[in-house]
Amino acid sequence: ARQHPAALSAAPRITSPRPARVQRALELIALRGASVWREGALVLRWLTLTISAGDCWVVHGAIGSGKSTLLAALHGDHGVAAGGTIRRIGHVTGAALDEFQRRTGYVAPELQAALPRQLSALEAVVAGGRGAFGLDGAVRSGERRSALRALHQVGALPLASRRLGELSYGQARRVLFARALVRRPDILLLDEPYVGLDARHRTRLGALVNRIAGGNHAVVIACHHRDEWPRCATHELELVRGRARYCGPLREHPAAAGARRQ
């Protein structure tokens, strides 16, 4: 795994032929025996995994396998049942998740549907920078610059003044991406992020995710289509009816398997 600057200490002076100790990447989220219930149904069962700085996890499985529930649970929207644990960097058990969520970018259909439709695209991104759904108070100049920069990143700058309720699903999805990126998060949680996008913007945002994943951030992306896996994927979780069929280092990227079959 890649190393995170915050996890490194000063290099020791070599005084013996013993091999140098391998530094571990900074752990950002750790699940241990985690199960998650939704509306009286057990959706995820006894999952154990660690997401570290530099990791790019791909979560895949059939529709209904629990992918969206997992990402929502990582973000803090669903709790872990008794008997399991979830540990997040910068978060003390029982405390509010504000600090953790300020370091996390989240793209999900449920979040997109929940945003107030009367907000402009710019205001929605500014609200995301504040860690809020709605906008409380005037937009400050620094917030405006950051929001416009994020909208430009995702090809949505022309939408800045338009209300969310006026946008197509794909346009609103690009605004949601900008909202996730405006705080330059350490962790990016992406639930089926390319749904509703045309080919041009799918390619643009896919390249952006690959750049982020290739840096020293953590990315967790739930994909239904294997051609959407980031090139920099390092780990995978295959879910079957809420259980982990496989959880660990990437076995083989779909692009490599496809090239070999040709």
Descriptive overview:
There is one protein chain. This protein has eight helices and nine strands. It is an alpha/beta fold and 262 residues long. α4 crosses α5, α4 packs parallel to α6 and α5 crosses α6. The longest helix is centred in the C-terminal third of the chain and has 16 residues. The two termini are 31 Å apart.
Order of SSEs, N→C? EEEHEHEHHHHEHEEEH
End-to-end separation: 31 Å
As a percent range, the share of strand residues is 15-25%
* Rough outline: globular
- Rg, please? 19 Å
Oligomer: single chain
Number of helices: 8
The gist of it:
This protein is of the alpha/beta class and 262 residues long.
Main attributes of the structure:
single chain, about 260 residues, alpha/beta, 8 helices, about 25% strand
Task: Give me the secondary-structure topology.
Blueprint (H helix, E strand, L loop, with lengths): L26 E12 L2 E12 L3 E6 L5 H9 L9 E4 L9 H5 L1 E4 L1 H6 L6 H9 L11 H13 L15 H13 L5 E5 L7 H16 L3 E5 L12 E6 L2 E7 L4 H8 L1
Parallel strand pairs: 3-7, 3-8, 5-6, 6-7
Antiparallel strand pairs: 1-2, 1-4, 8-9
